[in-house]
Every structure is written in C-alpha cells, then in structure tokens.
From TrEMBL:
Protein name: Uncharacterized protein
Family from the record: Belongs to the glycosyl hydrolase 43 family.
This protein's UniProt keywords: Carbohydrate metabolism, Glycosidase, Hydrolase
Lineage, highest ranks first: unclassified sequences, metagenomes, ecological metagenomes
Keyword tRNA processing: no
MF annotations from Gene Ontology: hydrolase activity, hydrolyzing O-glycosyl compounds
One GO BP annotation of this record: carbohydrate metabolic process
Species of provenance: marine sediment metagenome
Length: 389
C-alpha cells in the first residue's frame, strides 16, 4: 500500500513537472515568436526617414553607430547631427557647429556639411557666406573646415578663414582619399555672375525667356594632408552640356525649359572609387524645384577627364509614374559590409512634407558592365540595410 502510494506520488509529480515544462516551453516559444516578429518589423523601413535635412551626409563611425549631418535640421547658423545604430531610428544630438560668431569668418548660408573620421579626429567640411565682402556681393560662398574629437562636436574651425579662395563663390565641398593616400577636394562653382554661352542659352533668348543663363560647374583639386590648403590649380571636371543634341542636355536643363529660373546647375557632387573606376555623382537643376535630379560620370583618374553616363539621370522625381516624390538630389553614397551594399542617401520632397526637404535612402548598385543604378525613389517598405541589430 505504501509503495503504491509512493508510486502515485511520483506519477503525480512527474505529470506536474511535464505540465510545467510544457507551459514553460509554450512561453519560451511565444517569447521567441515575439522576438522574431520584432526582428521582422525592424527589418524594413519606409522613406522618407524622420529627419528634415537637405544635403544629407552619413558618417559610419566604425563602432556600430552612424551620424547624419545636413543643411537645416534645427540648427541656427551652423549644423546639427543625428545618431543611429540601425539607420532607421535617428536621435537628435543637437547642434555641433556654431558659426556667425564675433570671431568667425562666416556669416550665413550654412550648407552641405560632410564629416570625415581620420586618425580618430573628425573633420567637418561645409559651405557658408563669408563676412569679408568689400564689394557687397550678393553671394560670397566659401568652404570652411572645422575639427573635433567627437562626431557630436563641438567643431572648431582649423583656421579663421575659408580653406582657399579660387576667385569665385564655391559650395558643396566633398573629399575623396585615393588608394595612394592623396586627398582630393571637389566643389561647385556657384552660378552667381557666371553667364555661359550655350545652345540652351541661345534657345532661351530666342524664345524670349531669359537674356542669359548662369551655370555652376564642378571642379577638383588636390588637398593638403592637414586640410588647410590646396595643392595646385583647380581642374574643371563637369559642366552642363553646351549642345542641345547632347543626351544629358534635356534633363540637366529642365529648370530653364520649365521657366523656373535662368540657371543650370552642376552641384552636390560625391566621388568614390569602384574597382579601377572613379564615379562622380552630381545633381542638376534648381534644388528648390521639382526637377532636381542626380546623374553620374566616370573617369580613370580622380581629376578626370570625366565622361557623363548615357543612362542619366539615375535618380529623379517619380510623379510621372504615379508617385509623389520630387526634388531628389544632393546625394552621398553609404557603403555597408565592406562595400557589398551601397545606398544613395539624398533629400527629396513629397506632398505631405511640402517644401521641407527630408531624407531618403535607397539601394544602389554597379552592374558588371560598370553601369550605376539607383533603385529609387521609393516610399514603399524596403529591407533594412543593417541585417543584424
């Protein structure tokens, strides 16, 4: 009798343990399912990102954290930054550079910041109007350089004057380091007081639209290793087409042909190297209009000559295809996993964002024949660039 009672007790305990185990297994399974579902939710993102920047630039800090810089973003006379570990959720880190001070060389129009990490220091290249303006010019854009020990600043100018003076207003500085260690600076000569003869200008004058067309051109020059000066003379690399029959003339002249303004732009350049070819992406048309778009050119040397691609533009408004994205431009290229993944990071507008520029991020690739393709603009769910959170 006692033995049978003991057996019943063990049988009861065994069944109870099995029930508890089953219950724990269900809870664990449910927990794993919740975690899996969370990962699925985090595995996608939708443009535009929740950051109001023009001219966005993302720095990979090398420790799992990314920093985004851009024009605007709540900064006053300077620049702000946002941080992220997944490229989707961005945290406002506040203003990191303050210009227009009593001792600064700059005054206003703080545009297009790009930050580079070199030897554990952070270098900020930016555009701004300078205070020194004895002839009272409407545009005095120059490029400055500031440095910090942290991506969150504060950044201080390395010298109280612009990087250099080419004799005309310049914007949109972009820095590229070649395999031999040399640095190159690319920038855009502003349209201001730069009227240029072309068949497009002749057409506009004949049609009674504009008496002249001003243009901005992209130049390149070697940069000193301390980022305090340039080496040699700037080289003209890109300009709007002179001939109407040029395959790139139509899309690069839309701000003129649509009667937005009497200017043609080649600006917001970004240069990178893929295999043995240098790729320069650039933006054309008015940044504040719907026709802002991106093209690219290639070369075998960082200072050219560059040849524009036949499949340009590679990024433009999608309203003609039923979308609502316009003003796509001033991009940079973010490379992930050692260049296995490439993303075009750029600004654009939608019907809901109105005139505010917001950040987009779309996958891009270079095909086997060297053709560059951007898969955008998108506003539908896209795979997260970061696969492991």
């Amino acid at each position: 009798m006692e033995i049978k009672c003991i057996q019943n007790v063990f049988r009861f305990l065994g069944l109870s343990a099995l029930a508890c185990f089953s219950l724990l297994s269900c809870k664990t399974e449910k927990k794993e399912q919740v975690t899996a579902n969370s990962k699925v939710k985090q595995a996608e993102y939708t443009n535009p990102l929740k950051v109001e920047f023009g001219d966005p630039y993302i720095l990979d800090n090398g420790n799992g954290t990314y920093y985004m810089y851009g024009t605007g973003g709540g900064a006053k006379d300077g620049f702000a930054t946002y941080s992220s570990t997944d490229l989707i959720k961005w945290k406002d880190e506040g203003q990191v550079y303050f210009g227009n001070t009593e001792t600064s060389w700059n005054l206003k129009s703080f545009w297009a910041p790009e930050v580079y990490k070199i030897d554990n220091r952070y270098y900020l290249f930016y555009s701004a109007d300078k205070k020194d303006n004895p002839t009272n010019e409407a545009e005095t854009f120059s490029i400055g350089v500031a440095v910090s020990d942290s991506p969150k600043g504060p950044f201080e100018d390395i010298k109280n004057e612009p990087l250099f003076d080419p004799g005309y207003p310049i914007i949109d500085g972009n820095v590229f380091q070649d395999d031999d260690g040399k640095y190159f600076l690319y920038y855009s000569r502003a349209c201001y007081q730069h009227a240029v003869e072309s068949e497009i200008a002749d057409w506009a004058k004949k049609e009674g639209l504009y008496d002249e067309i001003e243009e901005s051109w992209v130049y390149g020059v070697e940069l000193s290793p301390d980022f305090k000066s340039v080496i040699g003379e700037p080289v003209l690399l890109l300009r709007p087409p002179e001939k109407i029959e040029d395959k790139n003339a139509e899309w690069e002249s839309r701000s003129v042909t649509s009667q937005e303004v009497n200017r043609r732009w080649t600006e917001g350049s970004f240069t990178f190297k893929h295999n043995d070819t240098y790729y320069m992406m650039y933006s054309a048309n008015h940044y504040a209009g719907p026709n802002y778009a991106v093209g690219y050119a290639t070369a075998k040397h960082p200072l050219g000559p560059y040849t524009k691609a036949e499949n340009n533009p590679v990024l433009q408004k999608n309203v003609d295809q039923g979308g609502d994205v316009t003003g796509t431009g001033h991009n940079m290229v973010l490379q992930i996993d050692g260049g296995k993944k490439m993303y075009a990071v750029y600004h654009g507008r939608t019907k809901s964002t109105g005139d505010n520029r917001v950040v987009f991020m779309d996958a891009m690739e270079i095909l086997e024949d060297g053709t560059l393709v951007v898969h955008g603009p998108t506003t539908s769910p896209q795979p997260n660039p970061i696969t492991e959170l």
